[in-house]
Design brief:
With 101 residues, this protein is mainly α. The protein has helices at 4-15, 17-28, 33-39, 42-52, 54-62, 70-82, 84-88, 91-100. 78% of the residues lie in helices and 0% in strands. Helix 2 (17-28) crosses helix 4 (42-52). The longest helix is centred in the C-terminal third of the chain and has 13 residues, at 70-82.
Length: 101
């Protein structure tokens, strides 16, 4: 059974989806990452941190928390800084929410 807190965390991660998609699309359209980040707000940089943590989140979940990558650590910190609900969630709940995106 999925806990309501997990659904809320997934919603938090998904809420930043359009910003992540546009930021990611900007870099694949030929713009340099420096130019892309310079023209967008700091929120898109935080969202990129979460998006780039997906592989680390998958390793973390698959290893039952034994493998902790640097990108996952950065994403956990970013989510907890920006969202009060994320501060109450476990690392595993946040990693699963990142993967749900």
């Amino acid at each position: 059974m999925i806990r309501p807190a997990t659904l809320l965390l997934a919603a938090i991660v998904l809420a930043s989806g359009p910003v992540m998609a546009s930021s990611f699309g900007g870099t694949s359209a030929g713009a340099s990452s420096a130019g892309s980040s310079g023209s967008s707000g700091s929120t898109s940089g935080d969202d990129k941190v979460v998006l780039q943590a997906r592989d680390d989140a998958a390793s973390f979940v698959a290893s039952d928390g034994r493998i902790r990558g640097a990108q996952l650590e950065a994403a956990l910190m970013s989510l907890r800084e920006r969202h009060a609900d994320a501060r109450l969630a476990s690392d595993m709940e946040l990693a699963r929410a990142i993967l749900a995106f």
